[in-house]
Amino acid sequence: MKRYDVVVVGGGIMGSATAWWLARSGARTLLLERFHIGHDRGSSHGSSRIFRLSYPDSGYVRMAQESLKLWRQAETEVGEELLVTTGGLDLGPGIEANHAALRECGARSEMLSESELAQRFQFLSHDGPGLLQPDSGFVRAERAWAAFQVLARGHGAELCEETVVESIEQSNDGAVVHTAAESIECSACVVTAGAWARELLVGAGVELETRPTRETVSYFRYEGPLPPTIAEWVTPLRYALPAPGLGLKAGEHLAGPTADPGEIRTVDDASIERISKWLAALYPGVDGKPHHTETCLYTNTRDENFVLERYGSVVVGSPCSGHGFKFAPLIGKRLAELALEQ
User: How confident is the model at residue 157 (pLDDT cuts 50, 70, 90)?
Assistant: First the structure.
């Protein structure tokens, strides 16, 4: 039976970042992915993801600050820009709490009155003030996913794609990961399997209370300089960001139905209609009809916080409740540290 220091189950952005840190530390690492790297069945695909420091919770602001440094470290190691700085705007009720959290953490931010917002960003139309955070931007999602793979494998990590893990069990000296073809021993197993994690963890004696949802995102044609990323803090939260080669990407946060990760996924027409009207009003010069739509799986906790815990020889790195991508290098580092604990 093969044996590794750590087996990572789930090769999305979180699993790939974890494999990078593990292999970088010298651990013999195996990464298992049920589909292929770059697939669109989970939560890591697509051209871009928002990177923002702005949260009403100072704990998340500090995590974003640390993550920003680690994104730059990854860029240096791989020799490619992964995080593009555009600045970020927060709109809507309650943004004063975000401003307070940013100030508490020493992060740059500026409250803009309605007139100042209109003067600074003449291509936008919004009634009310805004909060500007200049260090925000977007991550080139597919390139970042591929970059962590390159980094992990460059440090010696092994990757097996199209490999479905059927179960995980804890043993006297670690864990055993069972696939259809073989069983693999390891000192620790990290599960970053998103919507598939709950079922996998049952056999390892770990109960994970999550709800997978199917979210819809839309892409709109846009020409011009890169605009800031936008988050409007209404319910559900609405967001817009640049999408290289596709214009603008926009969607709603936690607006989709509960989903089976194995089902054939379809977009939500009602969500597309709502976000199209919102974007057309916010960007008067943008065609309000999307040219492309797609889905993305969220795996959510009740409070939208992350689960990053070790249970015996099993480390749980899922879910991230739809807002974890920006923290990928930091989450990968923390999961690797948990897996390597003696």
Answer: very high
Looking at every residue in the chain, the average pLDDT score rounds to 97
* pLDDT tens, residue by residue, 321-332: 999 999 999 999
CA 51/CA 325 separation, integer angstroms? 8
Sign for the CA dihedral angle at 78, 26, 141, 76 comes to negative
Which is nearest to 58 in space by CA: 104, 21, 8? 104
Strands 229-232, 88-91: pairing kind = parallel
Half-sphere CA count of 43, side-chain side, radius 13 A: 33
Q: Which of 198, 214, 193, 194 is nearest to 258 (CA)?
A: 214
Query: Dihedral of the CA atoms 26, 28, 33, 38 (nearest 10)?
Result: 30
Residue closest to 50 by CA, chosen among 250, 339, 224, 333: 250
DSSP of 35-100: S-TT-SSSSS-SSEEEE----SSHHHHHHHHHHHHHHHHHHHHHTS--EEE--EEEESTTHHHHHH
Please tell me whether the peptide bond between 93 and the residue prior to it is cis, using omega within 30 degrees of 0. no
| Superfamily for the 1-52+137-209+303-342 domain | FAD/NAD(P)-binding domain (3.50.50.60)
- What is the side-by-side strand order in the sheet with 130-133? 110-112, 130-133, 88-91, 229-232, 238-243, 247-252, 211-220, 292-300
Q: What is the rounded CA–CA span in Å between residue 314 and residue 307? A: 13
43 neighbors 190 (Cβ within 8 angstroms): no
Chain segment 5-27, per-residue pLDDT in tens: 999 999 999 999 999 999 999 99
User: Phi and psi of 91, rounded to 5°?
Assistant: -125, 165
| Cis previous bond, 236, omega within 30 | yes
Q: What is the pTM of this model?
A: 0.97
